[in-house]
Design brief:
This protein is of the alpha+beta class. It is built from 12 helices and 18 strands. Strand 10 and strand 11 form a beta hairpin. Helix 3 packs antiparallel against helix 4. The termini are far apart. The relative contact order is 0.12. Bound molecules: adenosine-5'-diphosphate and magnesium ion. Adenosine-5'-diphosphate (ADP) binds next to strand 7, strand 10 and strand 15.
Length: 388
C-alpha cells in the first residue's frame, strides 16, 4: 500500500477538540483537512481547510467528502458505522467501522474483551427486568451503565442491590451492563497506535484522576512499579491486535488494590488522557493518527519530559458556583509559570462541565510538574490542588 503524501486531503468525521488537534497535526505535516460535522462553528470545523456542515449520514455531504479525500478517520466513537463504510469504498478509512462498532457499545465491548480473555470487572448484561432481578449478589455494590452514548460518567447509576439495578435499568430505558464496583488503587490509560503493517507503538502509561466523573488530571509517566507499567502497555497492545485495530486506540484500565489490571473501556481514537503527548513526547497521539491514516512510518512515542495535564472545564470561566456570568480566566497567572502549555479548543460558549481546553505542566521531574499543576489549579480556582 502506498503512503498518502502531504498535499493530499484527509477527511475527518466529527468536529470536537480531538478533531481540532488532529487537523492541526495534519496541517503541520502539510495535509489539507476536510471536516464533516453538523455544527456551524465546531472546534475542528473552524481550523479545517474545508468544513462540510451536515449530518454524518447526509448522502450529498458524504459524497462530497468522498470525492475530495484520499483517507478518512473519526474523532468520536459514536460516528455512524454506515458513514465510515461509505467512505471506505473510495478512501482509506482507519479505524475500520467494525472496530468502532465494538467500542460504541458497552455490551459488545465487554463481550469482545472477556471473549478474548482480557481481564474486566465482573459484569452481567441487563436487557430485561428479569436480568436485573436475577443478578447475582456478588455484582453488588455495582454500577449500571447504559450500553450506548454514555460519557464522562453520564448514563451510570450506582446500585446496592438487585432492586436498584432494576430501577436503574428502567431509568436508563436501554440495554445496560451491571458491573461490580471495584476498589481501585489507580486509574490508568495506555494509548497505542497500530498501522497497516501491524507495527505498534504505545506511549508511557498515564495515571488519571477524575472529578465528578470527568477527567481532571493525567500524570505521565504514571508513578507505578515498572513491571506494572510494562504489563499495562503489553495489555493495550494485545487489545489493539485482537481488534485488528488500525489507528490510535486508548485503553482505560483499573488498577486494583492488589495491583491487578482490569480493562475498563476502550476508545477508538486519541484520548483526553493522551493530550500530554503533544508537549511531552517526540510524537503526539494526533501526529500518530495522521501517520497511520496516511500510512507513513510510526513516529517515536518516547516521552522526553515529565508532564501533568490539567483539564479546563467551563466552570473555570465562571467566577463562582452561583454566578451565571462568565469572564475570560486569568491566563497571565497561569502562563507566568514558564513550563505551562495552554491549549484552548475555541468553543464559543463556556458551559459548566464542558471541556474547554487543557494545560500541560512540564517539569524536570514529576514532582516538579505536579508543583506547577498545583499552582495552575490555585490560579484558576480548580478544586483539588492540595490533593495532587
Ligand atoms: N466498576 C467500577 N469500579 C470502580 N470505579 C468505576 C467502575 N466503573 C466506573 N468507575 C468510575 O467511573 C468512571 C467513569 O466510568 P467509565 O466506565 O470509564 O465511563 P465513561 O468514561 O464513559 O463515563 C471511571 O473512570 C471510574 O472512576
Ligand atoms: Mg471512561
Amino acid at each position: 500500500m502506498d503512503s498518502i503524501s502531504p498535499g493530499n486531503w484527509l477527511g475527518l468525521l466529527g468536529g470536537g477538540q480531538l478533531g481540532r488537534m488532529f487537523c492541526m497535526a495534519a496541517q503541520s505535516l502539510g495535509y489539507k483537512v476536510a471536516v464533516l460535522d453538523p455544527g456551524l462553528a465546531s472546534p475542528a470545523g473552524t481550523v479545517a481547510d474545508r468544513h462540510i456542515a451536515a449530518d454524518y449520514l447526509d448522502p450529498t455531504a458524504l459524497a462530497q467528502l468522498a470525492s475530495l479525500v484520499a483517507a478518512a478517520t473519526t474523532e468520536f466513537e459514536n460516528v455512524p458505522a454506515a458513514a465510515l463504510e461509505f467512505l471506505s469504498r473510495t478512501a482509506r478509512v482507519t479505524p475500520a467501522a467494525a472496530s468502532v462498532a465494538i467500542a460504541q457499545d458497552r455490551i459488545s465491548e465487554k463481550m469482545f474483551l472477556s471473549g478474548h480473555g482480557f481481564p474486566v470487572a465482573p459484569y452481567v448484561i441487563l436487557r430485561t427486568d428479569a436480568d436485573a432481578r436475577d443478578a447475582r449478589l456478588d455484582f453488588f455494590p455495582g454500577v449500571v451503565k447504559t450500553a450506548r452514548f454514555g460519557y464522562d460518567g453520564k448514563g451510570q447509576i450506582a446500585c446496592e442491590q438487585p432492586a436498584d439495578a432494576l430501577a436503574a435499568l428502567s431509568a436508563l430505558s436501554a440495554p445496560c451492563v451491571l458491573e461490580q464496583w471495584v476498589p481501585l488503587a489507580y486509574e490508568i490509560s495506555v494509548i497505542v497506535a497500530r498501522n497497516e503493517r501491524d507495527e505498534t507503538a504505545s506511549w508511557p502509561v498515564a495515571e488519571n484522576r477524575h472529578r465528578g466523573g470527568i477527567l481532571d488530571v493525567s500524570i505521565a509517566p504514571a508513578q507505578l512499579p515498572p513491571r506494572l507499567s510494562a504489563q499495562a502497555c503489553d495489555l493495550a497492545t494485545r487489545v489493539a491486535k485482537a481488534l485488528d485495530y488500525r489507528g490510535v486506540l486508548c485503553v482505560e484500565m483499573f488498577v486494583g488494590k492488589d495491583l491487578s489490571l482490569l480493562v475498563n473501556e476502550i476508545a477508538p481514537r486519541p484520548h483526553n488522557s493522551g493530550h500530554y503527548t503533544i508537549d511531552a513526547c517526540v510524537t503526539s497521539q494526533f501526529e500518530q493518527q495522521v501517520r497511520v491514516l496516511a500510512d507513513l512510518p510510526l513516529g517515536d512515542t518516547r516521552q522526553h519530559t515529565p508532564a501533568v495535564m490539567v483539564n479546563l472545564l467551563g466552570d473555570v470561566w465562571f467566577t463562582n458556583a452561583e454566578e451565571s456570568k462568565t469572564r475570560e480566566p486569568p491566563w497571565r497567572d497561569v502562563l507566568c509559570q514558564p513550563q505551562t502549555k495552554l491549549h484552548l479548543y475555541g468553543k464559543a460558549e463556556p458551559r459548566r462541565k464542558r471541556k474547554m481546553g487543557h494545560i500541560t505542566c512540564l517539569g524536570a521531574s514529576i514532582d516538579d510538574a505536579l508543583a506547577t499543576a498545583r499552582e495552575v489549579k490555585r490560579a484558576l480556582r480548580i478544586a483539588g490542588a492540595d490533593n495532587l
